[in-house]
Amino acid sequence: MPSTPDDDSVEPIVRKTAAWAWRLLVILAAAVAFFWLARRLAIVVVPVLVALMLTALLVPAVDWLNRRGAPRGGAVALVLLTGMAIVGGILAFVISQFVIGLPGLVEQVTRSIDSVRKWLIEGPLHLSRAQIDNAGNAAIQALRNNQEKLTSGAVSTAATVTEVVTGALMMLFTLIFFLYGGRNIWHYVTKIFPVRVRDRVRAAGSAGFRSLIGYVRATFLVALVDAAGVGTGLAIMGVPLALPLASLVFLGAFIPLVGAVISGFLAVVVALLAKGFIYALITLGVLIGVNQLEAHILQPLVMGRAVSIHPLAVVLAISTGGVLAGVVGALLAVPTVAFLNNAFRVLTASQPSTEPLTHDGEGSAIMQAEPDSLEDRSE
Fold first, then answer.
1. Annotated region Disordered: where (predicted)?
2. Domain map of the chain by residue range?
3. Are 226 and 237 in contact, with CB atoms under 8 Å apart?
4. How does residue 374 score in pLDDT terms, banded at 50, 70 and 90?
C-alpha cells in the first residue's frame, strides 16, 4: 500500500512500532481467548492433555509388542492392564502402610503435644495450665463456629471428586484411542492444513511428541530417585509413614524444580511432630540434598538430554501455569513448553525436515503419518 502524506509525516520508528503493537495486541487477544476457552472446557482439556502424557509414557511398550507380532488392540489392552495393576498395587500397599502406621503416629504426636505443654508450663514461659486449656478451648470453639463453612467445603469437595472421576474416565477413554490409533488421528487432523505445508506440520507434531516422550521418561526417573532418597532417609530415622510420604514426593516431583520440595515439607512436619526438632532438621537436610542432586546432576544429565529448555523458561512456565490453572497448570506447563519448543523449531526451520514421516523403530513418535493403517498392521 503506497504511503500517504499523513504517513510521511510520522517518524518511521513510530510507524513500525504501531505496526508491531497492533499485531501483538491481536496475538495477545487470541491467546487470552484460547486460555479462557480452555479454562471453560477444563474438564475436557485436562483429561486429554493427561492422556497425551500417559500416551508418551506407554506408547513405546505398545509399539514394541506390536512390532513383535502382537495385535495392536491386544498390545494396548496388555499395557493398560499391566499399568493399572502396578499402580493399583502400589496404592493398595501405600494405603495399607498408612493405616498400619497411623496409630503409632497419633501416639507419637500425642506425646509430642504433652511434651510441648509441659515445656510451656515448666519452661521459661511459665504459662499456667488454665491459659493452655483456654487456648485449646478457643480453638475448638472456632471450629464449631465455622462448622457451616467446613460443611460447605465438604460439599464442594464432593463435587470436585465427581469431576475427578468423570475426568479420569474420559482420560482413560482418550488414552485407549491415542494408543491404538494416535498416528491416524494426527494424520487426519493435519488434513485441515494446505497440502504444501502439511508434511512440515506433521513433522513438527512428530518432533514435539518425541520431546514429550523424552520429558516423561526423564521426569519419571528423576521422580523415582527423589522418592527413593527421601524414603530411605525417613526409613533410616524411623519416621512414621515413610513410604506414603515418599510416594507424595514421587508424585510432587512431576512438577520440576519445586514439586518435590513442596511435597517433601510434609515429611518435615511429620518428623517434627513424631520425632522432634532434631529429626525435622535432619529430614530437611535430606530433602535439600535430594533437591541439589536433582538440580545439579539429574536435571542436566537426564532432563537436559531429553528436553533442551533453559531453567529460567522452566521456572517461568511453572509460575505461569500455576497462576492460570493451579496445580494442574504447573504440572502441564513444562511438557507443553517442551512440545511447542521442538514443534516450532521444525515449523520455522529454513529447510523442511528431511526426516521420513514413518515409524522410527523406537516407538517414539505417535504423531507420525504412516501410509498403512494401524488396523492393517495389527492383522
1. 355-379
2. 39-372
3. no
4. very low
